[in-house]
Amino acid sequence: MHEGRRDVERGDRTRRSVVEASGATRAAAVTTLPPGGSVPGPVPGTGTVEPRSVANRSTDRAALDSGARTRSGPPAADESRQAGGGTAAAGQERGSAGDHVVGAGSASTGPADEDSTDPATVDPVGRPSVRRTLGLGAGLLGLGLVLLVAVLAGLAVGAKPIPFSVVLDAFTHDGFWTFDAADGDHLVVREMRLPRTLLGILAGVALGVAGALMQGVTRNPLADPGILGVNAGAAFFLVTAISVLGVTTLTGYVWFGFAGAAVSVVVIYGIAAMGREGATPLKLALAGAAMNAALLSLTTAVLITDSAAFDRFRFWQVGALAGRGMDVVVQALPFILAGLLLALVCGRVLNALSLGEDLARSLGRRVGRDRLLVLIAVVVLCGTATAAAGPIGFIGLAVPHVARLITGPDYRWILAYSALLAPILLLTADILGRVVANPGELQVGVVTAVLGAPLFIALIRRRRLLEL
Questions:
Q1: What is the Cα–Cα distance from 290 to 131, expressed in whole angstroms?
Q2: How far is CA 311 from the centre of its chain?
Q3: Which of 190, 197, 393, 405 is 20 to 30 Å from the Cα of 208, by its Cα?
Q4: 417: Cβ–Cβ under 8 A, 6 or more apart, which residues?
Q5: Maximum CA pair distance of the chain?
Q6: How far is Cα 38 from Cα 59, in angstroms, rounded to an integer?
């Protein structure tokens, strides 16, 4: 009987030790509660740990108190400390496993964070790669060769075709830049076709670059230099000069046309700049449309009352390269060169403005000053071209879209390609005008409208080109 009682007492001590160890383990777990307020517990059948909700915390504390009350001596405390150490070790193992999981996640997401673009396309700072730059540069070189062919064709093709050998001899007869004044073909090349070809290059470059600048500064895909009243202002001043001042020479037309274009743009910009927002693209377009309508009505009123002025004006109004001498080319050259220098500065400016005014300001751009700089370049380029050759349509409207299709949204390349594509189109239109109406000719403004309208219709069907 005594042996049975001893067995019962040993069993009771074993149960008390187990209860105390369990209470100590829960105490260690409660003291290391995570910030979310949940106690980890095992998920049955899985061997994993899941958080216990805050609602179960009272049950845990009750078990803890029960274990503390049944504590009876140092051996139980030692067992409690061992159990707590085991729990801490388990926590460390879980933390180590978590670190391994995080590390594995970092390793798995590493390749996704890397730039997935082809290094041959974009370099580490996001600039165009060498391959793309070389490709666009090769495209410019190719367009330069096409322009050279168009120039040679412009000197050789006309009502009277002239062989290329005679064209070359007209520039190297007795040395460089000499010709035979007694030779009729030499006179045709040097006195008639050379000035109109050079003027076609200058006017084409000016109109193409001015159109790209206008579309960039207004962020309007249908913008051309005429939207700022350049053509309307030049026409009104020219009609006034013919009717009131009696100007009859083409040289006089150039200066009055340029002055009218400049005054019109200054007035339109002043109107658009009123208000807190300044000269926004929308206000520029609206002010330009209103000014165009007003100047057109005034020009029509003058022409109706003066038939002589109308007869002189209509020759300029149609837009032509014929009949212009080297004096017009010499007068237009410095203005167009100055405008092109300004346009070179405007490439980065337009790239910033194309991101929107707020983002451009966050990049450190002074939007008002930048927009004014672009408009000055437009006035100089388009005003000079319009004054010298008359209002020639569709060049400044369609050519920038073709350039954008080739180069993408970078205005530095758009301006460069527009400067080559526009004179190619203008000289081609001039050559076609001589051929299709032989022995007469169609003025270049008529041919560019015929060629430009279908081209622009095809371009606007590509909807992504209209997103500036």
A1: 47
A2: 44
A3: 190
A4: 139, 140, 143, 402, 403, 406, 407
A5: 152
A6: 13
Q: How far is residue 300's CA from residue 304's CA, in Å, rounded to a whole number?
A: 6
What do you get for the CA distance between the two ends of the chain, in Å?
A: 102
3-state SS, residue 39: strand
Tokens found for residue 461: 């069907």
Which residues, including other chains, have CB under 8 Å from residue 6's CB and lie 6 or more apart? none
Distance of CA 440 to the CA centre of its chain: 43
Which of 325, 317, 308, 328 is CA-nearest to residue 443?
Answer: 317
Distance, in Å, from the CA atom of 362 to the CA atom of 366, rounded to the nearest integer, reads 10
Quote the CA–CA distance of 227 and 265 in Å, as a whole number. Answer: 10
Locate all alpha helices (DSSP H) within 229-325, ordered by sequence.
Answer: 230-240, 250-272, 281-305, 307-317
Tell me: the pLDDT tens digits for 175-225?
A: 888 888 888 899 999 999 999 999 999 999 999 999 999 888 888 787 777
Omega cis (within 30) before 124 = no
Find tokens 């032989």 and name the residue. Answer: 438
Alpha carbons 276 and 425: distance in angstroms, whole number? 41
Residue 73, pLDDT score:
45
Query: Can you tell me which residue has the tokens 């051996």?
Result: 75
pTM as predicted = 0.69
Backbone phi, psi, residue 465, to 5°? -70, -20
**Token digits for 141?**
């070189």
